[in-house]
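Note to self: user wants both folds in one dump. Writing first protein now.
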Amino acid sequence: MRIVGVIIVFLSVVSFCSPSMAKQKTGNEKQENPHVVFSSFFAPGNNSKSERVNIPVTLVFEVTKGTDTKRFCLMSPRILDAVMRDLHKKPIKMRKNRAINLPGLGVRLTSVTNGALKKEAVLTTHAFDRVLTGKSGKTISAHWKKCTAR
């Protein structure tokens, strides 16, 4: 599983750095994939001493252009159940000074979310280890859709 994760991360980095991405997009081509933000929640984790801790997590899903974000938000209870089931099976591991491997967690949760939806609707999952509000350093972008259904 670790090798598959490394390969996925490597391929995403290679595709991101490709020269075709360097072209400037104009007009309607500038539209990017929609982002959907779920409400923050506490996820189970283990600290560096293998003690159980709760970690605040906010998930931002980058979905395909063909995905209806309203329907995606209606599916949020199913998605969160699958995410929490996976996080209870394999809790988030923290290193010293509360460092978390967030890109690796995002790849794992992308697979879980696509499995819960039974289709490839999510391109990437961004996991933040804090609550995102308008007052914090990392804010919710204006073009991200916030899901309030639980």
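First done. Writing the second protein, which came from a different request thread.
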Amino acid sequence: MSNIDEQYDTVIRTLEPTQLTDDSIAEKSPTRRRLIRLGTAAIPVVATLASQPALAWHCNSASAWGSAKAGTTQSQTARNTSKQIADETWTITNWKNNTTRLSGSTPWTVLKSKYSGISASWATVTVAQLYANVSALRPIVGLDTSSMNTTLVKELLQANTTHFKSHVLVAQLNYLLLGSSGWGVCVNPANEGPTTIPQTLAQMSVATYAYPSTSAAWAKSDVVKYLESNYIAVA
């Protein structure tokens, strides 16, 4: 079996785990393999139809993601129309430990240069201080920022793939610092500007975002999955 054949079988097993047996793969393979051999590029395109964008630091709009979630007929095409983000986003771990991804400045260095009211060391900034000095930040469901005078931001942030508050807070912070680097198709379809948290992200932060608008609001887990899969805020 050629290398392309092996890649084909891997993709087919992933896409149709309940429908295909070893015999049925063998039966269907010859015709489909002839199509695959037209170009190996077909494999990653097929493989990403129902997953995150094919390349890192690309993102899909929330509306395209919502269409795919709802299973509309145009959803797969929309979901694979991604936009490259010019700058890499800082991860939750980067914000928690003030480290940088690959090369460049640390997130707290950039944040403090833009919002000079944050005079304390990054490691001692509380949630209340952060919200008091970065007025553009929007509310997060379940986070009483006014009373968090002793809760440090680095303690609030949890670098895992399920923590809702960490993801939406880091998504907001990343947007305020990197919002002009190609995010328009992601969470800012109305082009509201890089200094204001766009409505889409603001609604996600309080778990009221819904797309299509007639559908139920996204669950917190849906928001986290979107932010993770589209490289807007990752653990």
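Dump finished. Worth passing along: The first helix runs from residue 3 to 15.
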